[in-house]
Amino acid sequence: MGNKSIALLLATTSAVFFVFGALIGVYVIEENKKTFVTLDVKPLLIDEISAEKISANLKHLTSVPHVAGTEQDLLQAEWVRDRFLESGLDEAHTVPYDVLLSYPRHGVVNTVELIDEKNQANFTTAGRQPPLGTPQDSYDKVLMNFNAYSGNGIVEGNIVYAHYGRDVDYEELQKRGVNVTGHIVLVRYGALFRGSKVVIAAKWGAIGVILFTDPMDKAREGRNFTFPDSWWLPGMGVESGSLYVVDGDPLTPFYPAIESAFRLKEEEQVNLPRIPVQPIGYDEAEILLRSMSCENPAPQEWDGLLDTPYCLGPKPLNPGWKVRINVSTTNEMRRTYNTIGILRGSVEEDRYVLLGNHRDAWTFGALDPSSGTASMIEVVRALGYIMKNKNWRPRRTMVFCSWGAEEFGLIGSYEWTQQFAKVLSQRAVAYLNVDVAVGGNQTLRGSAYPMLKNLLIESSKLVPNPNAAEIAAGRNTVFDTWAKNAPDANKPGQPAVGNMGGGSDFAPFAYVVGAPTTDFGYTAEYSYPTYHTLYDNYQLASEIVDRGFVHHQAVARMWAITAADIADATVLPFDIKSYAAFLNDSLNALEDKYDEQLQQNNATFKYFRASVDSFSKATKDFSEKTLATVNVEDPLEVRRVNDRLVQLERFFIDPKGLPDRPETNHIVFSVSANNAYGSDTFAGLVDLLFQVGNKTEAQDPVTWNKIRQHLSVIAFLIGEAARSLSDNLW
Ligand SMILES: *[C@@H]1O[C@H](CO)[C@@H](O)[C@H](O)[C@H]1NC(C)=O
Ligand SMILES: *[C@@H]1O[C@H](CO)[C@@H](O)[C@H](O)[C@H]1NC(C)=O
Ligand SMILES: *[C@@H]1O[C@H](CO)[C@@H](O)[C@H](O)[C@H]1NC(C)=O
Ligand SMILES: *[C@@H]1O[C@H](CO)[C@@H](O)[C@H](O)[C@H]1NC(C)=O
Ligand SMILES: *[C@@H]1O[C@H](CO)[C@@H](O)[C@H](O)[C@H]1NC(C)=O
Ligand SMILES: *[C@@H]1O[C@H](CO)[C@@H](O)[C@H](O)[C@H]1NC(C)=O
Ligand SMILES: *[C@@H]1O[C@H](CO)[C@@H](O)[C@H](O)[C@H]1NC(C)=O
Ligand SMILES: *[C@@H]1O[C@H](CO)[C@@H](O)[C@H](O)[C@H]1NC(C)=O
Ligand SMILES: [Zn+2]
């Protein structure tokens, strides 16, 4: 009890931080030496985590659709809370936020229709997906097909096929004399975020968007071999999904959607789509394609696997025919819930290692996201069991987060991190995300901030291989299969750990908090084809993708031991030298590509280079001198080096955001705005260089000025990160 109030005080006064840190450290250690044992908990966790228990969790979670903001949001949030408490967590709470969500009108189908010359409907899309495979009692609770935040209303026009709907696709259309202004575009899922497709379509003048998944992308073994015979997408399977291109509650940008919040009016949020958008099945897309005249055949690379020529339009085959989109989807204020569970640390109660996964799904959500939720509940149970039976507790506090409304735009996690941003930026050590725990059964894949990459690799060496064929081939661990399937080109024998982008709940921890994060799961060459459809259900998980739930078990084990490693280590296992090597490699690549151009335009990599060099030196010194000699018996010294490590990632956050993108602020790892072109490292710089193209300073002084300014910010922040590792302010 006493500890907790001191910890709170600490947060408020950074000047006395170290002094109290020392006092509290000594006090707690001595207190707890009597109470808790230290042990290597990793083998115990690996033993304890059960595939059957994950399967049972998943069965419950997938028994009903659980869309954010519906009755099931609360019921499942409470169910997860109760599992947490039953497993022995110290606390678990449901945390509500009132946010802008979006739903089709109850009992009304959104439709796309072919209208003949007499204004009669010749064909109308079904608007919902037929049940296939094992019957599900709660099929009636599944929402009609829709895209969240679609514009509402009716539009009529002719259709233009716009391939993946990227800018390059519209440029190609323009080259071929097709102007989409005033028309409806038919766009394939894939290649870029669906919300960006709508932004681009509207920019080029389209009045509505029809989205479909081509069998070439998601039914590669033919249209007859689909769910439930295989994992491939059936012809009436429809991918739902959000169209909102910014993350967090649309009405409370930058701030939490709590009771006192000031809310924008819906029409003030410029990032909400205005045109109607409707997703349909590929059987239906085929009928629309057949209604088009083929005076203008599509480029060959635009062809898919439908049984009809792909034509550009807009001319219909039959004169006077049109297409009508009728969308009833409306935005509504609804309540969504996070569930937050807490396991208090024995020594550093005010340092948090967080694990998270979202809970909401578009339908039954077996793989996305319930495979992760079912696994997290089992991780918590195993930890609780070991706590009870071995008299163990982690050194640091572990926090378990089950997020609401991720699917609408990372809303639950953004609102929570926005609410607790200041405290989290002092106390959050790392955030470990698992969204889709199992999206395939071939190999682990993972991405991480450089400081955590090694840790992920080391964890994978401890987890037994879940795949019998792989074991027969001599690959006994998750690591062995991962290294084989995703080899690191620069490090023979090692798997490549990806870099963090956006797209799941780690984003607010990276951007709002500035904490190192990771995201991983089992997958195949590509992720499962029935993503965001009705067919992402228990049958898919238990009979097709992971019979025996052994891949789920492997991911849960990875998650538990990686978290336990960070939570329990005396000195944090963060690999800062790899961060330096990574920055150096990235800068080398930038220099190779742009150095000459910069020099010709009165800009330079000189200061960027100097800051990376000093970061390299600082991380080397810190690793080889400070960390190598730290006295682990001295709580003040331990706290001091750990604080440096915890804070390091925060330095890469520019509070003003990237150039022209205030909501995107990590100078190294933000996602490029030019989705189709850009690299994801130093996105602010790369985007500006893309924007300026081959224009000189004289031709585009404004952009060149922004380039110089951003280069100076990069050099400054990396230099300060380097300095933070030393003992000196100056
Ligand atoms: C739709 O149009 C086709 C071709 O004109 C015609 O054969 C078919 O009967 C029409 N179907 C309906 C339901 O109007
Ligand atoms: C496309 O059509 C619209 C409306 O007819 C017109 O305003 C616009 O200039 C056209 N764009 C091009 C590039 O021809
Ligand atoms: C696919 O199924 C349809 C209907 O059952 C059948 O007519 C067709 O021959 C099948 N195609 C292939 C390639 O098996
Ligand atoms: C649009 O759909 C609504 C709901 O089904 C229906 O009431 C309305 O008549 C439709 N409008 C048109 C023009 O088809
Ligand atoms: C692995 O997934 C594939 C589908 O990609 C499936 O055919 C196969 O049966 C699965 N294996 C296991 C053990 O579940
Ligand atoms: C950074 O990269 C350059 C060019 O490859 C290399 O010469 C230098 O040694 C690297 N610095 C560090 C600290 O690795
Ligand atoms: C080059 O940039 C610097 C600031 O970065 C500025 O002081 C100088 O005037 C610029 N020179 C030219 C020729 O634009
Ligand atoms: C510069 O870019 C323009 C437009 O992208 C292009 O037409 C031109 O050929 C480029 N010039 C050089 C020297 O690359
Ligand atoms: Zn997900």
TrEMBL record:
It holds the Pfam family Peptidase_M28. InterPro entries: PA_dom_sf, PA_domain, Peptidase_M28, Peptidase_M28B, TFR-like_dimer_dom, TFR-like_dimer_dom_sf. The keyword Zinc applies. Keywords: Carboxypeptidase, Glycoprotein, Hydrolase, Membrane, Metal-binding, Metalloprotease, Protease, Signal-anchor, Transmembrane, Transmembrane helix, Zinc. It is a single-pass type II membrane protein. Its cofactor is Zn(2+). Residues 338-540 form the Peptidase M28 domain. One of its GO terms (molecular function) is metallocarboxypeptidase activity. GO terms for cellular component: membrane. One of its GO terms (biological process) is proteolysis. Residues 155-240 form the PA domain. Belongs to the peptidase M28 family. M28B subfamily. PANTHER family: GLUTAMATE CARBOXYPEPTIDASE 2 HOMOLOG, N-ACETYLATED-ALPHA-LINKED ACIDIC DIPEPTIDASE. This is glutamate carboxypeptidase II. It comes from Daphnia sinensis.
